[in-house]
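Thread: YKT6 protein, structure

OP (GT): Posting the sequence first so everyone is looking at the same thing. Length is 77 residues per the record. Can we get the structure tokens written out before standup tomorrow? I want them in the notebook alongside the other entries.
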Amino acid sequence: EYLCHVHVRSDGLAGVVIADNEYPPRVCFTLLDKVLDEFSRQVSKVDWPSGSPGTITYSALDGHLSRYQVRALAPRR
């Protein structure tokens, strides 16, 4: 089972995190806040409505995701 966490800011910028039910909602919203704040600083607001991955470059997302993803533990021997 998965949960969809959505955050819509007052400026109209929105983000979505899809996580399983064991991932803490507070962490999802912390990730959303950081990504949306940084995105809004790097990408002009006029580009938000019509932008796409082909027209907007936002390279920080991968870094944020790698810090917030839960890594599976290696099996014990």
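GT: Both are above now. Quick notes for whoever picks this up: The radius of gyration is 15 Å. Strands lie at 2-8, 14-20.
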